[in-house]
């Protein structure tokens, strides 16, 4: 069975108004394939809830942000996406991750460190994640 981490933007595409239309064919096969164990970082969940609360991700049929966030989390649970908490090993990997001038987002860096430490591919639409391949990140780019 293949394991992958899903980044926040992939989660937003799945649960938001987009309903997965922005997922590439390759990523759709990963997300909806029976051979894949889907994981996401607890950091991604907090980012997703924040994006729903500020209106950047809209959940169809939900005007109340609390209801929208609950529905989004339920949808992820129904898909069988498992939540991986941050551990000391992930933070230790973060210590060794270099800074790039154009990519200083602390949440992204922690998500990348988590994927590197766990040796699990990370699926994202963020092209900047490509920079971390040379530091051990196995990266699956969602080419939209």
Q: How would you portray this structure in words?
A:
With 144 residues, the chain is an alpha/beta fold. The protein has two domains: 2-84, no CATH class; 88-141, no CATH class. The chain is built from six helices and five strands, in the order βααβααβααββ. The protein has helices spanning 8-15, 25-32, 42-53, 65-78, 88-96, 106-118, and strands at 2-6, 36-41, 82-84, 122-124, 139-141. The chain has a five-stranded parallel beta sheet with strand order 3-2-1-4-5, sandwiched between helices. Helix 1 (8-15) packs across helix 3 (42-53), helix 3 packs antiparallel against helix 4 (65-78) and helix 5 packs across helix 6. The longest helix has 14 residues, at 65-78. It is globular. The protein starts with a strand and ends with a strand.
Q: What's the helix count?
A: 6
What Rg, in angstroms, do the CA atoms define? 15 Å
Helix content: 40-55%
Please state the average pLDDT score.
95
Shape: globular
Q: Terminal Cα separation, in Å?
A: 25 Å
Q: What class do helices, strands and sheet pairing give?
A: alpha/beta
Keywords:
144 residues; alpha/beta; 2 domains; 5-stranded parallel sheet; 5 strands; 44% helix; globular
